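Job type: complex structure
Entries:
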Amino acid sequence: MDTRELVAAYLLGELDPAQAAEFDRRLQSDPELRVEVEAMRPLIADLEALPGEAWPDSEAVAPAPAAVTSGGEAAVAREAAIKPRTGRRLWSLRPAFALGALIVALLLGGAAGALLAGGDGSGGEAPAPALTLQPLSSGSAASGEVAMPAPDEMVLTVTDLPPSQQGQYYELWLLDGDEQTVPVASFRVGADGTASLRVPLPADPAAFRYFDVSRQHAAEGTEHSADSVLRGPTAPS
Amino acid sequence: MPNRAHDGPPRQRRRSQADPEEQRLARALRAGDRDAVASIEARFGRVLAGFLRDALPDPGGAEDVLQQVLLEIWRRGPDYDPERASLLTWMMTIARSRAIDERRRRRPEPVEPAVVAASAGAGPAEVDRLLERWHLAGLLDRIPAEEAAVLRLRFYEELAQPEIAERIGIPLGTVKTRMVRGLARLRQLIVEEGGSDGHA
């Protein structure tokens, strides 16, 4: 991949976590790369804004023969069932932002430890093992852990994240590595660098590849800021 | 969308990526070939008409201006210099000028309130923003059709990549490759057209 393809892949969320982390490291030290990223961002925004008549007609969009596509139907059907269908944009799947804002109120502080250790206390099946979120910046000591005490809810615990500044918050996302970002919850981090929250899941994590935590600025809208600070798989490796 | 409108027409710069059809049309224009206008309309009519429809409040007026633009393209064709700008950029510059002229010239007319509302606030900066948008639409004709098709499905129809793969009947990896290459190619074209920070 040349640089422009790499930048396109980065902005489209096509890089795997290791590649994305390496790219983020390069961004820190390579001003030209930052320029290229910032130059390509508006192109994507403009493509999203193009009206239908601005797109050339193409025979390439003809439906595929059924025999060609049958293998992927189950996955597509599953994906269609869990994904929001309106307002879908690159880095901007925000149908549940209101839910995320509501969930901020559910921040649990120190209660998360008990949740992680004992699930919801119902005494049923043992909860799935906790998942680890890794920092995407090599200089960061931050870490995160995700536990799912019930099939439709999760507990996120983060440590050593920079405290939220004025107008800044963190957002937890489900990310599938292809293009989909689904917001799960918004939260702030206090002076001790920690936060814990228990939230309902807006979609089945099994349909996504990563949990992702991004640093957001309220003044810059609710789309994914592309400033990810933690990321980890949605299932044990 | 970031506001990258500028005060003047697209910057002109020598383009480096050959487009055989544009080159053929440019040669025909320079030679004063009468059939060139029909070919220009067939190739660029979608973009020119789309821009004028958006930039001018009256659809009928936009159609009139399109005919003026095509006539001017043919009349000025012998002076067109492909070393200074691509044919697309050159024609969009003409369309921009005629759109602005039309907006300045237009007398108050009894039009539908919706038409008035649609045209409110569309000053020169807005015209340039529309010019950028439709210039990008024109560049989509220069990338391989299969890449443009994937981008259309992604950005306009808002399909997920697996859905695109199913619709077209190609592997998911090919969808990703076409999307990434299409974007990279568009970005390269924008740079070649003279837009270092965005569109030409």
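Summary: Residues 74 and 80 of chain A are 10 Å apart (CA to CA). The longest strand of chain A covers residues 143-150.
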